[in-house]
TrEMBL record:
InterPro entries membership: ABT1/Esf2, ABT1/ESF2_RRM, Nucleotide-bd_a/b_plait_sf, RBD_domain_sf, RRM_dom
Family: Belongs to the ESF2/ABP1 family.
UniProt entry keywords in alphabetical sequence: Nucleus, RNA-binding
Any single GO CC term annotated in Swiss-Prot or TrEMBL for this entry: nucleolus
Name used for this protein in its record: RRM domain-containing protein
Subcellular location: Nucleus, Nucleolus
Domain RRM: from-to ranges: 11-93
Organism: Cinchona calisaya
Domain of life: Eukaryota
Molecular function, one GO term: RNA binding
Length: 220
């Protein structure tokens, strides 16, 4: 009960912009001079923005996008917001946020518990969004892997077809060469008797004319 009564007396201010290089410790040091502060919460910047800044060679530390400051008293919170909003932050001139402008507003009827609920809600939304992104990334990965497998299968089929085509072409060339080759003609040789020469005819014995005349009835 005592804690609830003390919470009712506190006031919360909202900072819509946090200057570069400012963190909760530095913010507390600056605002504590105006009144006692209970709690401070600064929202870290988007991780993608931080990665982009680092790659560009910018500040490598943690930056913040917005914040809430809980003062011990509502009256102090109202006075600080009214006095500082739109004014130069100032401080030491060598400070990186010396020329920055305060963007601060008092949140009427706003309690720190409301902030914790808001943070929990934002975290839930962020986790849900992250889950959707992961699911989409998995679907994209599965689709890519299926396309890779399909491409490999098509490549294998294409290679087999090329091999078959090459074999057909080689077979066709071999057949053409075989068809154009000269087939030697087989010549059969048979032994022949030598022809009778003129001398052999002349040397052959002949019958006498008397014998022939006697056979055929002729006269001498």
């Amino acid at each position: 009960m005592e804690e609830a009564k003390m919470a009712e007396k506190r006031g919360v201010c909202y900072l819509s912009r946090i200057p570069p290089h400012m963190d909760p410790l530095k913010l507390r040091q600056i605002l504590s001079q105006y009144g006692e502060i209970q709690r401070i919460y600064l929202t870290p910047e988007d991780p993608a923005a931080r990665v982009h800044r680092k790659r560009a060679g910018g500040f490598r530390g943690q930056e913040f996008s917005e914040g809430w400051v809980e003062f011990e008293k509502k009256s102090v919170a109202k006075r600080v917001a009214k006095m500082l909003n739109g004014e130069q932050i100032g401080g030491r001139k060598r400070s990186t946020f010396y020329y920055d402008i305060w963007n601060i507003k008092y949140l009427s009827k706003f309690k720190w518990d409301d902030l914790t609920e808001e943070i929990a809600y934002r975290n839930a939304i962020r986790e849900q969004k992250l889950a959707l992104e992961i699911s989409a990334a998995k679907r994209e990965r599965d689709f890519y892997l299926s396309k890779v497998d399909q491409s490999r299968a098509l490549s294998s089929i294409e290679q087999r077809l090329k091999k078959k085509q090459k074999v057909r072409e080689q077979s066709a060339v071999t057949s053409e060469i075989s068809g154009n080759q000269f087939v030697p003609k087989v010549v059969w040789q048979f032994p022949q008797k030598k022809p009778v020469t003129t001398n052999a005819v002349e040397s052959k014995p002949r019958l006498s004319k008397d014998i022939l005349a006697g056979i055929f009835g002729g006269t001498s």
